[in-house]
Design brief:
Length: 439
């Protein structure tokens, strides 16, 4: 924290504009050396950027942010220069030899923002997700977290737990005083029952958040030559899988990421399911069944009405969509009762209807103006610990208020670990390692 750090924060070169970020106690000194003077805080000024020999390296916009009114809470600066490799490398080389200045590690700017109280862990994780977002729903979910809306909910719950403990302590320590409110049971436990309902309802959104963040997993399955790889290629709009008339061509799991109605969809192609003596194909079939077990939706393909693998072989615990394929070759084989949808990857017939069916399996967020949902396993784990501790506290009504207060303290600690208020040092390295250097 005593070092001044720097990094290129704007991505791959060359680019139209490159942004070099600086943060730390020597920021003003560095700017004076590079630009000859320190700009007014929060004012963009055009400056020539020079090296130690007073040679001009480039000309660009310079911004200075005085602590604590900056992203990291420290003195910060940004150099917006031309995005050529030679220009950027020359400026970085000049920063490298500045005393007390070093290159930033991955996520170090955000870590300093957390340690200086500018962001909590939920906002930090939301920021990482926002940078990585590839679909509209991922962007909306990440924006909700990075803006602090989810943290506000958790902070409100933490305040209620703290208030409940304070009231219990007041009743225990000052029961004879007139200024202590009435029965804790009347004032506190009703609110704790309401809080358990709110947390339970909140946890129900974890499945939706997981699909938004990690994607809906759709597995294409069926017998060999049913058209699985052709469907994968058609939906991906490129040749991902090798397509031949030889049974057993696909032996490993292939996957592509698609965007469907703003959601991320992971589409998996699997080996044809059949009995075989080929050891390599047997391994592919074993992996196919493992992938099916992990799927959210299974697309079961067949090129004849009799070609569908019996459901009991798949042991499905998730939706299975029966798809009749190659209808351009033999349309008279099929009737509406034979499959959920009939398609041809050659003509494109039925593909739009298939996409509509798949969209029906996406989470319905139409009634939600905000996506304040728990997105990570650690969020869910801490929330479950919080809920369990409150429920135990409510169940210990015959054990004394001091015991009940202790369980509420445990609930508050579990909730505080989500935002980073309590005992999270071991998590920090993992969380900030997800960031790119310069953020």
């Amino acid at each position: 924290m005593s070092d001044t750090i720097y990094a290129l924060s704007s991505g791959a070169l060359p680019a139209g504009v490159a942004v070099i970020r600086i943060s730390g106690p020597r920021t003003s000194e560095v700017l004076n050396g590079l630009c000859g003077s320190l700009p007014l805080p929060r004012h963009a000024v055009l400056r020539s950027i020079r090296n130690r020999n007073n040679d001009v390296l480039d000309q660009g916009l310079v911004l200075y942010f005085a602590a604590p009114a900056s992203f990291t809470g420290e003195d910060c600066a940004e150099l917006q220069v031309h995005g050529g490799r030679a220009v950027v490398n020359a400026i970085l080389a000049e920063l490298e030899v500045s005393p007390g200045v070093r290159h930033a590690e991955a996520g170090e700017f955000s870590r300093r923002a957390f340690q200086n109280g500018k962001l909590d862990l939920v906002e930090v994780e939301g920021l990482a997700d926002l940078i990585a977002a590839e679909t509209e729903m991922q962007r909306r979910l990440a924006q909700e977290h990075s803006s602090g809306n989810l943290s506000t909910i958790y902070e409100g719950w933490a305040h209620r737990l703290t208030h409940a403990r304070a009231m219990i302590e007041a009743e225990l320590d000052f029961a004879d005083e007139d200024d202590v409110p009435g029965s804790v049971a009347e004032k506190i436990w009703v609110d704790m029952h309401e809080l358990t309902s709110e947390i339970t309802s909140h946890l129900e959104g974890a499945g939706v958040a997981e699909i938004i963040r990690d994607g809906l997993k759709i597995v294409i399955a069926g017998e060999p030559n049913a058209g699985k790889s052709s469907l994968l290629n058609h939906l991906a709009r490129r040749d991902v899988a090798i397509v031949t008339d030889i049974a057993g061509t696909t032996r490993d799991i292939l996957s592509v990421d698609l965007s469907l109605a703003g959601f991320r969809v992971q589409l998996f192609d699997t080996a044809g399911l059949r009995e075989t003596d080929d050891k390599v194909e047997q391994e592919g079939i074993r992996r196919a069944y493992l992938t099916i077990d992990q799927a959210d939706v299974v697309l079961l393909l067949a090129d004849t009405p009799e070609g569908f693998i019996p459901f009991e072989k798949l042991q499905p615990t998730k939706p299975v969509i029966r798809i009749g394929t190659k209808i351009d070759r033999s349309p008279l084989l099929w009737d509406k009762a034979s499959a959920d949808v009939l398609i041809s990857t050659e003509t494109g017939a039925g593909i739009d209807r298939l996409i509509e069916i798949l969209a029906d399996h996406l989470p319905d967020v139409s009634g939600q103006n905000a996506l304040s949902l728990p997105t990570r396993k650690r969020h869910v784990s801490c929330l479950k610990q919080t809920l369990s501790a409150i429920e135990i506290s409510l169940a210990q009504s015959n054990s004394g208020l001091d015991i009940q207060a202790e369980y509420l303290r445990q609930a508050g600690d579990a909730l505080g670990r989500i935002t980073g208020r309590v005992d999270v040092e071991d998590l920090l390295g993992v969380i900030f390692s997800e960031f790119c250097i310069g953020k």
